[in-house]
Protein backbone atom coordinates (compact mmCIF):
# COMPACT_ATOMS: atom_id res chain seq x y z
CA UNK A 1 0.00 0.00 0.00
CA UNK A 2 1.31 3.49 -0.88
CA UNK A 3 2.18 5.46 2.21
CA UNK A 4 3.38 8.93 3.13
CA UNK A 5 6.95 9.24 4.33
CA UNK A 6 7.06 10.39 7.94
CA UNK A 7 8.03 13.86 9.07
CA UNK A 8 10.95 12.35 11.00
CA UNK A 9 12.27 10.83 7.79
CA UNK A 10 11.92 14.19 6.07
CA UNK A 11 13.97 15.92 8.79
CA UNK A 12 16.69 13.28 8.68
CA UNK A 13 16.92 13.46 4.90
CA UNK A 14 17.14 17.24 5.01
CA UNK A 15 20.11 16.95 7.36
CA UNK A 16 21.74 14.33 5.13
CA UNK A 17 21.37 16.61 2.12
CA UNK A 18 22.96 19.61 3.78
CA UNK A 19 26.41 18.63 2.52
CA UNK A 20 25.28 18.90 -1.15
CA UNK A 21 26.69 21.62 -3.43
CA UNK A 22 25.17 25.08 -3.76
CA UNK A 23 21.55 25.55 -4.81
CA UNK A 24 20.49 25.13 -8.44
CA UNK A 25 18.56 27.74 -10.43
CA UNK A 26 16.12 25.27 -11.97
CA UNK A 27 13.89 22.40 -10.85
CA UNK A 28 15.46 19.30 -12.34
CA UNK A 29 13.48 16.29 -13.50
CA UNK A 30 14.98 13.14 -14.99
CA UNK A 31 13.34 11.61 -18.04
CA UNK A 32 13.88 7.90 -18.80
CA UNK A 33 13.07 7.57 -22.48
CA UNK A 34 13.26 4.53 -24.77
CA UNK A 35 14.12 5.45 -28.34
CA UNK A 36 14.72 1.82 -29.26
CA UNK A 37 13.55 -1.53 -27.90
CA UNK A 38 10.43 -3.70 -28.03
CA UNK A 39 7.94 -0.83 -27.68
CA UNK A 40 9.71 1.69 -29.92
CA UNK A 41 6.58 2.37 -32.01
CA UNK A 42 4.92 3.55 -28.78
CA UNK A 43 7.89 5.24 -27.07
CA UNK A 44 9.63 7.13 -29.86
CA UNK A 45 7.41 10.19 -29.58
CA UNK A 46 7.12 10.41 -25.79
CA UNK A 47 9.90 12.99 -25.87
CA UNK A 48 7.83 15.33 -28.05
CA UNK A 49 4.97 15.27 -25.54
CA UNK A 50 7.20 15.89 -22.51
CA UNK A 51 8.98 18.74 -24.25
CA UNK A 52 5.59 20.28 -25.06
CA UNK A 53 4.53 20.09 -21.43
CA UNK A 54 7.75 21.54 -20.04
CA UNK A 55 7.69 24.39 -22.56
CA UNK A 56 4.10 25.19 -21.58
CA UNK A 57 4.93 25.14 -17.88
CA UNK A 58 8.02 27.32 -18.26
CA UNK A 59 6.26 29.76 -20.60
CA UNK A 60 3.54 30.31 -17.99
CA UNK A 61 6.03 31.27 -15.29
CA UNK A 62 7.43 27.91 -14.26
CA UNK A 63 6.91 26.43 -10.81
CA UNK A 64 7.31 28.67 -7.80
CA UNK A 65 9.13 31.14 -10.04
CA UNK A 66 11.62 28.53 -11.30
CA UNK A 67 11.86 26.77 -14.62
CA UNK A 68 11.80 23.01 -15.06
CA UNK A 69 14.97 21.53 -16.51
CA UNK A 70 14.86 18.08 -18.13
CA UNK A 71 17.76 15.65 -18.11
CA UNK A 72 17.18 12.74 -20.48
CA UNK A 73 18.54 9.18 -20.45
CA UNK A 74 17.81 6.73 -23.26
CA UNK A 75 17.26 3.30 -21.70
CA UNK A 76 16.56 1.56 -25.00
CA UNK A 77 13.81 -0.28 -23.12
CA UNK A 78 16.49 -2.21 -21.19
CA UNK A 79 15.63 -2.76 -17.50
CA UNK A 80 19.29 -2.55 -16.46
CA UNK A 81 19.62 0.81 -18.18
CA UNK A 82 16.45 2.02 -16.47
CA UNK A 83 18.08 1.26 -13.11
CA UNK A 84 21.26 3.06 -14.13
CA UNK A 85 19.17 6.05 -15.23
CA UNK A 86 17.40 6.53 -11.91
CA UNK A 87 20.69 6.19 -10.05
CA UNK A 88 22.31 8.84 -12.20
CA UNK A 89 19.35 11.18 -11.88
CA UNK A 90 19.39 10.87 -8.10
CA UNK A 91 23.12 10.90 -7.41
CA UNK A 92 24.65 12.98 -10.19
CA UNK A 93 21.90 15.28 -11.42
CA UNK A 94 20.10 16.08 -8.13
CA UNK A 95 16.78 15.47 -9.84
CA UNK A 96 13.63 15.96 -7.80
CA UNK A 97 11.77 13.18 -9.60
CA UNK A 98 11.77 10.99 -12.68
CA UNK A 99 9.40 10.86 -15.65
CA UNK A 100 9.41 7.16 -16.52
CA UNK A 101 10.53 4.52 -17.02
CA UNK A 102 8.19 3.20 -19.71
CA UNK A 103 7.51 -0.53 -19.33
CA UNK A 104 6.74 -2.99 -16.56
CA UNK A 105 10.00 -4.81 -17.31
CA UNK A 106 11.92 -1.61 -16.63
CA UNK A 107 9.88 -0.79 -13.51
CA UNK A 108 10.65 -4.16 -11.95
CA UNK A 109 14.28 -3.06 -11.71
CA UNK A 110 14.05 0.74 -11.56
CA UNK A 111 11.40 0.97 -8.80
CA UNK A 112 13.49 -0.89 -6.19
CA UNK A 113 16.48 1.29 -7.12
CA UNK A 114 14.42 4.46 -6.76
CA UNK A 115 13.03 3.27 -3.44
CA UNK A 116 16.54 2.86 -2.04
CA UNK A 117 17.46 6.33 -3.31
CA UNK A 118 14.15 7.83 -2.17
CA UNK A 119 13.42 9.56 -5.47
CA UNK A 120 9.89 9.56 -6.98
CA UNK A 121 9.34 7.87 -10.33
CA UNK A 122 6.13 7.95 -12.37
CA UNK A 123 6.05 5.23 -15.00
CA UNK A 124 4.55 6.03 -18.40
CA UNK A 125 3.06 2.69 -19.44
CA UNK A 126 3.67 -0.06 -16.89
CA UNK A 127 0.42 -1.93 -16.27
CA UNK A 128 1.40 -5.34 -14.88
CA UNK A 129 -0.83 -5.98 -11.84
CA UNK A 130 0.34 -4.74 -8.42
CA UNK A 131 3.82 -3.80 -9.62
CA UNK A 132 3.97 -0.42 -7.85
CA UNK A 133 2.18 -1.52 -4.68
CA UNK A 134 5.29 -2.28 -2.54
CA UNK A 135 7.03 1.01 -3.32
CA UNK A 136 6.35 4.35 -1.67
CA UNK A 137 8.28 6.20 -4.37
CA UNK A 138 7.03 4.22 -7.38
CA UNK A 139 3.93 5.55 -9.15
CA UNK A 140 2.37 4.71 -12.51
CA UNK A 141 0.34 7.03 -14.72
CA UNK A 142 -1.36 4.00 -16.16
CA UNK A 143 -4.25 1.73 -15.28
CA UNK A 144 -3.77 -1.95 -14.64
CA UNK A 145 -4.70 -4.19 -17.53
CA UNK A 146 -7.49 -5.86 -15.57
CA UNK A 147 -9.42 -2.58 -15.50
CA UNK A 148 -8.53 -1.72 -19.10
CA UNK A 149 -9.59 -5.04 -20.63
CA UNK A 150 -12.46 -5.27 -18.16
CA UNK A 151 -13.82 -2.11 -19.78
CA UNK A 152 -13.45 -3.75 -23.19
CA UNK A 153 -15.47 -6.73 -21.96
CA UNK A 154 -18.10 -4.41 -20.53
CA UNK A 155 -18.40 -2.62 -23.88
CA UNK A 156 -18.82 -5.90 -25.78
CA UNK A 157 -21.56 -6.96 -23.40
CA UNK A 158 -23.36 -3.61 -23.52
CA UNK A 159 -23.27 -3.58 -27.33
CA UNK A 160 -24.46 -7.21 -27.54
CA UNK A 161 -21.41 -8.27 -29.60
CA UNK A 162 -20.62 -12.01 -29.96
CA UNK A 163 -18.32 -13.20 -27.18
CA UNK A 164 -19.37 -16.68 -26.04
CA UNK A 165 -16.10 -18.47 -26.83
CA UNK A 166 -12.51 -17.27 -26.75
CA UNK A 167 -8.87 -18.11 -27.28
CA UNK A 168 -5.85 -16.35 -25.80
CA UNK A 169 -2.69 -15.42 -27.71
CA UNK A 170 0.17 -13.79 -25.84
CA UNK A 171 3.88 -13.06 -26.01
CA UNK A 172 5.98 -14.86 -23.41
CA UNK A 173 9.01 -12.55 -23.46
CA UNK A 174 7.38 -9.31 -22.28
CA UNK A 175 6.22 -8.88 -18.69
CA UNK A 176 2.90 -7.16 -19.27
CA UNK A 177 2.00 -9.21 -22.37
CA UNK A 178 2.54 -12.42 -20.44
CA UNK A 179 0.58 -11.07 -17.47
CA UNK A 180 -2.35 -10.25 -19.76
CA UNK A 181 -2.37 -13.78 -21.16
CA UNK A 182 -1.92 -15.65 -17.89
CA UNK A 183 -3.35 -13.45 -15.13
CA UNK A 184 -5.75 -10.93 -16.66
CA UNK A 185 -7.72 -12.61 -19.44
CA UNK A 186 -8.58 -16.00 -17.84
CA UNK A 187 -10.41 -14.54 -14.82
CA UNK A 188 -12.13 -11.92 -16.99
CA UNK A 189 -13.42 -14.61 -19.35
CA UNK A 190 -14.67 -16.56 -16.36
CA UNK A 191 -16.34 -13.44 -14.92
CA UNK A 192 -18.21 -12.79 -18.17
CA UNK A 193 -19.17 -16.43 -18.70
CA UNK A 194 -16.96 -16.87 -21.78
CA UNK A 195 -15.64 -20.34 -22.58
CA UNK A 196 -11.85 -20.28 -23.01
CA UNK A 197 -11.04 -22.95 -25.58
CA UNK A 198 -7.36 -22.42 -26.41
CA UNK A 199 -4.17 -20.59 -25.42
CA UNK A 200 -1.29 -20.05 -27.85
CA UNK A 201 2.01 -18.34 -27.12
CA UNK A 202 4.79 -16.75 -29.14
CA UNK A 203 7.78 -14.44 -28.80
CA UNK A 204 7.03 -10.86 -29.75
CA UNK A 205 9.87 -10.85 -32.30
CA UNK A 206 8.63 -14.07 -33.92
CA UNK A 207 8.58 -13.90 -37.71
CA UNK A 208 6.03 -16.66 -38.27
CA UNK A 209 2.81 -17.13 -36.25
CA UNK A 210 1.04 -19.36 -38.77
CA UNK A 211 1.04 -22.37 -36.43
CA UNK A 212 -0.58 -20.39 -33.63
CA UNK A 213 -3.23 -19.00 -35.98
CA UNK A 214 -3.99 -22.49 -37.33
CA UNK A 215 -4.66 -23.63 -33.77
CA UNK A 216 -6.97 -20.68 -33.18
CA UNK A 217 -8.77 -21.34 -36.46
CA UNK A 218 -9.50 -24.92 -35.42
CA UNK A 219 -11.41 -23.70 -32.35
CA UNK A 220 -13.78 -21.37 -34.25
CA UNK A 221 -14.00 -18.86 -31.40
CA UNK A 222 -15.77 -15.48 -31.22
CA UNK A 223 -12.89 -13.47 -29.76
CA UNK A 224 -9.15 -13.75 -29.24
CA UNK A 225 -7.70 -12.07 -26.18
CA UNK A 226 -4.31 -10.67 -27.14
CA UNK A 227 -1.30 -9.78 -25.04
CA UNK A 228 1.46 -8.31 -27.21
CA UNK A 229 3.14 -5.11 -28.45
CA UNK A 230 1.80 -3.60 -31.70
CA UNK A 231 4.28 -5.30 -34.02
CA UNK A 232 3.28 -8.78 -32.89
CA UNK A 233 -0.42 -7.82 -32.98
CA UNK A 234 0.08 -6.72 -36.58
CA UNK A 235 1.67 -10.04 -37.55
CA UNK A 236 -1.10 -12.02 -35.86
CA UNK A 237 -3.88 -9.99 -37.48
CA UNK A 238 -2.39 -10.31 -40.95
CA UNK A 239 -1.96 -14.06 -40.51
CA UNK A 240 -5.56 -14.35 -39.33
CA UNK A 241 -6.58 -12.53 -42.49
CA UNK A 242 -4.39 -14.77 -44.67
CA UNK A 243 -5.95 -17.89 -43.16
CA UNK A 244 -9.43 -16.36 -43.49
CA UNK A 245 -10.18 -16.46 -39.78
CA UNK A 246 -13.06 -14.10 -38.95
CA UNK A 247 -12.57 -13.25 -35.28
CA UNK A 248 -12.51 -10.15 -33.10
CA UNK A 249 -9.19 -9.44 -31.39
CA UNK A 250 -9.42 -7.76 -27.99
CA UNK A 251 -6.42 -6.20 -26.28
CA UNK A 252 -5.18 -3.80 -23.68
CA UNK A 253 -2.72 -0.95 -23.68
CA UNK A 254 0.34 -2.71 -25.19
CA UNK A 255 -1.45 -2.64 -28.56
CA UNK A 256 -2.64 0.97 -28.24
CA UNK A 257 -0.91 2.37 -31.32
CA UNK A 258 -2.95 5.11 -33.05
CA UNK A 259 -1.44 4.12 -36.40
CA UNK A 260 -2.25 0.42 -36.00
CA UNK A 261 -5.43 0.50 -38.16
CA UNK A 262 -3.47 2.03 -41.04
CA UNK A 263 -0.61 -0.42 -40.56
CA UNK A 264 -3.09 -3.31 -40.51
CA UNK A 265 -4.11 -2.29 -44.05
CA UNK A 266 -7.47 -4.05 -43.90
CA UNK A 267 -6.54 -6.77 -41.39
CA UNK A 268 -7.68 -6.72 -37.78
CA UNK A 269 -11.14 -5.31 -38.50
CA UNK A 270 -13.23 -4.93 -35.30
CA UNK A 271 -10.13 -5.33 -33.12
CA UNK A 272 -11.16 -3.74 -29.82
CA UNK A 273 -8.87 -2.19 -27.22
CA UNK A 274 -8.96 -0.04 -24.13
CA UNK A 275 -6.78 3.07 -23.83
CA UNK A 276 -6.61 6.24 -21.77
CA UNK A 277 -6.66 8.68 -24.70
CA UNK A 278 -8.79 9.21 -27.78
CA UNK A 279 -7.55 12.07 -29.91
CA UNK A 280 -10.91 13.05 -31.33
CA UNK A 281 -12.76 13.13 -28.01
CA UNK A 282 -13.05 16.90 -27.45
CA UNK A 283 -11.54 20.25 -28.44
CA UNK A 284 -8.62 20.01 -25.99
CA UNK A 285 -7.55 16.58 -27.23
CA UNK A 286 -7.93 17.73 -30.85
CA UNK A 287 -5.83 20.85 -30.19
CA UNK A 288 -3.12 18.82 -28.48
CA UNK A 289 -3.12 16.32 -31.34
CA UNK A 290 -2.68 19.09 -33.91
CA UNK A 291 0.24 20.68 -32.05
CA UNK A 292 1.83 17.27 -31.55
CA UNK A 293 1.47 16.45 -35.25
CA UNK A 294 3.32 19.61 -36.25
CA UNK A 295 6.27 18.68 -34.07
CA UNK A 296 6.33 15.08 -35.20
CA UNK A 297 6.35 16.17 -38.85
CA UNK A 298 9.17 18.65 -38.15
CA UNK A 299 11.16 15.84 -36.52
CA UNK A 300 10.66 13.62 -39.55
CA UNK A 301 8.69 11.00 -37.60
CA UNK A 302 6.26 8.93 -39.64
CA UNK A 303 3.57 8.69 -36.96
CA UNK A 304 2.15 12.14 -36.34
CA UNK A 305 -0.83 11.19 -34.16
CA UNK A 306 -0.17 11.07 -30.40
CA UNK A 307 -0.70 7.77 -28.64
CA UNK A 308 -1.93 7.31 -25.09
CA UNK A 309 1.65 6.99 -23.83
CA UNK A 310 2.58 10.35 -25.29
CA UNK A 311 -0.34 11.80 -23.37
CA UNK A 312 0.63 9.87 -20.22
CA UNK A 313 4.13 11.37 -20.43
CA UNK A 314 2.67 14.85 -21.00
CA UNK A 315 0.40 14.39 -17.98
CA UNK A 316 3.31 13.26 -15.80
CA UNK A 317 5.21 16.49 -16.45
CA UNK A 318 2.08 18.47 -15.57
CA UNK A 319 1.53 16.38 -12.42
CA UNK A 320 5.10 17.01 -11.26
CA UNK A 321 4.62 20.75 -11.81
CA UNK A 322 1.47 20.70 -9.70
CA UNK A 323 2.87 18.67 -6.79
CA UNK A 324 6.07 20.75 -6.76
CA UNK A 325 3.90 23.86 -6.44
CA UNK A 326 1.99 22.31 -3.56
CA UNK A 327 5.20 21.19 -1.87
CA UNK A 328 6.79 24.64 -2.31
CA UNK A 329 9.98 23.14 -3.69
CA UNK A 330 12.98 25.39 -4.23
CA UNK A 331 15.31 23.09 -6.18
CA UNK A 332 18.20 23.96 -3.88
CA UNK A 333 20.65 21.08 -3.86
CA UNK A 334 20.87 21.38 -0.09
CA UNK A 335 17.14 20.64 0.06
CA UNK A 336 16.78 18.04 -2.70
CA UNK A 337 16.43 14.98 -0.47
CA UNK A 338 13.80 16.63 1.73
CA UNK A 339 11.94 18.01 -1.27
CA UNK A 340 11.80 14.56 -2.89
CA UNK A 341 10.04 13.37 0.26
CA UNK A 342 7.60 16.27 0.06
CA UNK A 343 6.90 15.53 -3.62
CA UNK A 344 6.26 11.86 -2.80
CA UNK A 345 3.76 12.91 -0.12
CA UNK A 346 1.88 15.15 -2.55
CA UNK A 347 1.82 12.43 -5.22
CA UNK A 348 0.43 9.91 -2.73
CA UNK A 349 -2.57 12.13 -2.03
CA UNK A 350 -3.17 13.44 -5.57
CA UNK A 351 -6.90 13.32 -6.29
CA UNK A 352 -9.02 14.43 -9.24
CA UNK A 353 -6.25 16.50 -10.80
CA UNK A 354 -7.54 17.89 -14.12
CA UNK A 355 -5.34 17.00 -17.09
CA UNK A 356 -5.62 16.47 -20.81
CA UNK A 357 -7.97 13.48 -21.38
CA UNK A 358 -9.47 13.46 -17.89
CA UNK A 359 -8.90 13.80 -14.15
CA UNK A 360 -6.12 11.76 -12.54
CA UNK A 361 -6.07 10.25 -9.04
CA UNK A 362 -3.36 7.99 -7.62
CA UNK A 363 -4.86 5.08 -5.69
CA UNK A 364 -3.39 3.39 -2.62
CA UNK A 365 -1.09 1.26 -4.80
CA UNK A 366 0.30 4.28 -6.65
CA UNK A 367 -1.60 3.55 -9.88
CA UNK A 368 -3.62 6.14 -11.76
CA UNK A 369 -7.38 6.21 -11.90
CA UNK A 370 -8.69 8.01 -14.98
CA UNK A 371 -11.14 7.51 -17.86
CA UNK A 372 -10.79 4.49 -20.17
CA UNK A 373 -11.67 4.91 -23.85
CA UNK A 374 -12.79 1.70 -25.60
CA UNK A 375 -12.34 1.75 -29.36
CA UNK A 376 -12.42 -0.59 -32.34
CA UNK A 377 -10.83 -0.67 -35.78
CA UNK A 378 -13.23 0.32 -38.53
CA UNK A 379 -11.57 0.63 -41.92
CA UNK A 380 -8.26 2.39 -41.36
CA UNK A 381 -9.02 4.19 -38.11
CA UNK A 382 -10.07 3.74 -34.49
CA UNK A 383 -13.68 4.53 -33.66
CA UNK A 384 -14.93 5.14 -30.13
CA UNK A 385 -17.25 2.54 -28.58
CA UNK A 386 -17.57 4.09 -25.14
CA UNK A 387 -15.91 5.78 -22.16
CA UNK A 388 -15.66 4.05 -18.78
CA UNK A 389 -14.35 4.91 -15.34
CA UNK A 390 -12.36 2.20 -13.50
CATH secondary-structure class of the largest domain: Alpha Beta
The residue fraction in helices comes out at 40-55%
Number of strands: 15
Query: What percent of residues are in strands?
Result: 15-25%
The tally of domains stands at: 2
Q: How far is the first residue's CA from the last residue's CA? A: 18 Å
| Count of helix runs | 13
Major beta sheet, strand line-up: 7-6-8-9-10-14-15
CATH architecture of the largest domain: 3-Layer(aba) Sandwich
Topology as a string of helices (H) and strands (E):
HEHHEHEHEEHEHEHEHEHEHHHEEEEE
Largest sheet features: 7 strands, mixed
Determine the mean pLDDT. 92
Helix/sheet category: alpha/beta
The Cα radius of gyration reads: 21 Å
Q: What is the CATH homology-level superfamily of the largest domain?
A: Response regulator
Primary descriptors:
alpha/beta, single chain, 2 domains, five-stranded parallel sheet, Rossmann fold, 13 helices, seven-stranded mixed sheet, 390 residues, 15 strands
Task: Walk me through this protein's architecture.
With 390 residues, the protein is of the alpha/beta class. Helix 1 runs antiparallel to helix 13 (336-348) and helix 12 (308-326) packs across helix 13 (336-348). The chain has two domains: 7-143 and 282-356, Response regulator (Rossmann fold); 146-275 and 373-388, Response regulator (Rossmann fold, 3-Layer(aba) Sandwich). The longest helix is centred in the last third of the chain and has 19 residues, at 308-326. The chain has helices at residues 7-16, 40-43, 46-59, 79-91, 104-117, 145-159, 175-191, 210-219, 230-242, 260-264, 283-298, 308-326, 336-348, and strands spanning 27-33, 68-74, 97-99, 121-123, 138-140, 165-171, 195-202, 223-227, 248-251, 272-275, 353-355, 358-362, 368-369, 372-378, 381-388. It has a seven-stranded mixed β-sheet, sandwiched between helices. Strands 2-1-3-4-5 form a five-stranded parallel β-sheet, sandwiched between helices. Strands 11-12-13 form a three-stranded antiparallel β-sheet, covered by helices on one side. The protein is built from 13 helices and 15 strands.
Amino acid sequence: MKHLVSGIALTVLAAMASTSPASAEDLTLGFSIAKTGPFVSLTLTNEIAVDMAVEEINASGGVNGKKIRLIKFDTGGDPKQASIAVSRFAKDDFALGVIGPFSSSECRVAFPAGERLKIPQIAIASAAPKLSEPFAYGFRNSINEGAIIGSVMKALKEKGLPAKTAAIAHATDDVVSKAIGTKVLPPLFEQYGIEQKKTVTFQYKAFDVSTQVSQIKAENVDIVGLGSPPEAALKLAKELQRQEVDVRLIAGTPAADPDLPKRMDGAGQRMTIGATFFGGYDESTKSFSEAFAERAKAAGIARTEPNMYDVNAYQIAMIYAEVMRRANVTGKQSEVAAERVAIQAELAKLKDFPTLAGEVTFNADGDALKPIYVMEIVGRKWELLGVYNP
